Amino acid sequence: MYDVVVIGQGLSGMLAAIWAKEKGKRTALIMSGAGKILQSTGVLDLIPGSDGTLEDWMKLYQMDLWVKPEVMQAVDKFKLLMRELGYAYEGDPGHPVPIVTGSGHIKYTALYPETVSPVPGSGRAVVVGFRELADFQPSFISKNLQNDRPGLRVSALSVRVGAESRRVLTQLDVARLLDQEDIRENCLNQIKNELRHRKTGQPDFFIFPSSLGYKQWPETLRRFSEALGATVTEAPGIPPNATAIRLNNLLKLKAIRSGVRFYGDTTVIGANRDNHTIRSVIIRMVNRTTEVAGSRFILATGGVLGGGLEVLPTGMRETALHLETDSQGRPVNPPDNLYLAGASRGEQLTRNGIVGGIYTLVSSYEAAYGACKPVRGGMKNA
Amino acid sequence: MPDQMFDMTMLDDSYEKCLKCNACVASCPVTGATLDFGGPKHMGPELKRLVDNQQSIDDERIEFCTLCGNCDLSCPENVHISTLTAFAKALHTEKNGSNFRDFVLSNAELVGKMASAFAPVTNAAMKMKPMRKVMEKVMKIPEGRKFPKYRFKNFNLTFKNKVTGSKRKVAYFVGCYAMYNAPNVAESFVKVMNYNGIEVVKPRQKCCGVPMLANGRMKQARKNAKFNIESLLEYVRKGYDVVTTCTSCGLALKKEYLSIDGSPEAKELAAHVYDADEYLRMLYDHGEFNTHLAPIKHIVGYHAPCHMRAQGMGSPALDILELIPGFDIYDLGAGCCGQCGTFGFKKEKYAVSMKLGRTMAESVKNLDADYTVTECGMCKNQLDQLTDKEVRHPMQILAESYEHARHLQTV
Fold this sequence. Notes:
The complex is a heterodimer.
Chain A: E1 2-7, H1 11-22, E2 27-30, H2 54-60, H3 68-84, E3 89-90, E4 97-100, E5 106-109, E6 112-113, E7 123-130, H4 138-148, E8 152-159, H5 171-177, H6 181-198, E9 205-209, H7 217-228, E10 231-235, H8 242-258, E11 261-263, E12 267-274, E13 277-284, E14 289-299, E15 309-312, E16 315-318, E17 338-340, H9 357-372
Parallel strand pairs in A: 1-2, 1-14, 2-11, 7-8, 7-9, 9-10, 14-17
Antiparallel strand pairs in A: 3-6, 4-5, 12-13, 13-14, 15-16
Helix pairs in contact in A: 1-8, 1-9, 3-9, 6-7
Chain B: H1 2-9, H2 23-27, H3 29-33, H4 40-51, H5 70-74, H6 81-96, H7 100-106, H8 108-117, H9 119-125, H10 129-139, H11 155-158, E1 169-173, H12 175-181, H13 183-195, E2 199-201, H14 210-214, H15 218-236, E3 240-244, H16 247-260, H17 264-270, E4 273-275, H18 276-285, E5 299-302, H19 306-309, H20 316-321, E6 328-331, H21 350-367, E7 371-373, H22 377-386, E8 391-392, H23 394-410
Parallel strand pairs in B: 1-2, 1-3, 3-4, 5-6, 5-7, 7-8
Helix pairs in contact in B: 4-6, 8-9, 8-12, 12-13, 13-23, 15-17, 16-17
């Protein structure tokens, strides 16, 4: 019934579905949960946990040099999509930049939304927390940042969001509150008063939790940088990060509005095959087990962390289609009409198989491209 | 002995898999609209973890849970969050009792029966300002909230099936809304099935129980579930498929009965329950769908009810309506409408209901289609209140297309 059936709703599944639909394919997306964007930072790293270059990355993933233009093509495609969705991403995988995280440590990232800015090497930085938000501790963060960036003079302060709440606030709650002008202005006044009181001079850089507005983030970001007269950044940390929620919700809305069919709360538990092709996947719905038929399938179920792979004493197990894998989790001789995106390819570069955002979007682009090609067989599986 | 009841029934240990990842919190429409709600993670798995094998805790912040099921959709670990919150709601009601308003609102069937018997009077009365002022004051039902109209000629009086002895047979679970408020939806459904050569019967049935669950009246919901399971299963065992035109009834029969009743019979029934569009799509996939549909040249917006999405079946209404030549339908992607069944009729929830509704209304306005399509009567109620577009059920459009095609043929 469908041209393309995508399994998984993480960044790889969502991008693959959007791009397949864009090519006019009847597309379904089957998912058993919200996907891992919600728990992510919303920035796209090259090599997670390392500050390596694009060349290091290509070596790690054993890519040939000729693939480089295609990597950049995928990156441009993603940037174009995000600009269209009104949440532009900046950066260049050729030149990863240092950003500060919610723990105060520096990490290098390749692509980041407009609400995130690279950390300068010198000048004055202020980490601003909200008293009601336990997930972001400015004094702890400022000390970590000071260690990582000795050339920067880092201080910390806290203000009150001032909203009555009957639950513990998350970064996302604060982001929604900062959508409101009165709350925004009240926070800015508190920050300015505190700085005036301290008489430490004009800061160059302000670090906030990932809470600078949800739907109204352009206005919040503009107002904060304007009123504080300095560069402002979000430091993504403990989920939910507004950086990631915006990315997730915009991609999902785009997919829904372009006509991708979402099968939620549904688990793929196997496949019906003819020789070496998948005819349909078997899904477990809330009330029964049934099939979803398609011409091409994209596996985007993630690695160990995403639940696409399971670590057993005997090795790796691929959970959705029960593909045979090697000891790393790489599918061995997968069906001809199956395309692998993201961590489901079984690359174990980091513990738990986090592959990084750039690898995710390049492999999703490749999978969507392969699944839409008129001739059987996609590009080589990296 | 309320505590005992909850210990005995709460064998659900899915909470143990909760990693506190906050996916449910980030996906919960009510959490996004008010800080008064405790949120699905706190009110579901965390509360359960705290009280398991111990004395239960009644937390009034559960009142804001609408049982929309978006938490279940988002959970990567398959924790049965809405089951846990449904029981938390039940405990809260058990300890505090239901007020008169919630008792009335949760009795959709009884209200439907009475209101439709005096339909012209009820409809007129619900529009009278003094009457609504009193209702707001006494019952805490907001004056500004529009109510669905009740029909004197309810579906019990108009049901007419014209096909018998077909291979596939349908036992129609009508639901209170199509029975008393929108008999035209039910009539359209029977026509559509008949156009596909399928016999429709109307088994004995009671309210599916969703309004009771949403108001914490678990015992009554269970009674209704038991009645419906017994009545519908009789048909299932004779080879009938159970089909619903209301997505909340559909979710109850497919999913809620598995947790609130939990019997093997509930499971047996659930496997044979279909949403009307899902059923038609299944016919289409088997090459049995009557594609003799007359063109309808309309641009239409589609609002996906939460309880439709919670059934995890894609978007069958879109799949089927797209088969009508010239029919251009777009998913609004608006999320929760904010009516949330009885929730939006309550004064203390009204602001939240309107806040959610405005987001939906905005998407309707931006698309600016000819009209809006949705399966859910309660979503329609909110759409009627907040948008100026007509709202129709997929079955009404299909019936119209089939009738027109037949007309063209005979002319």
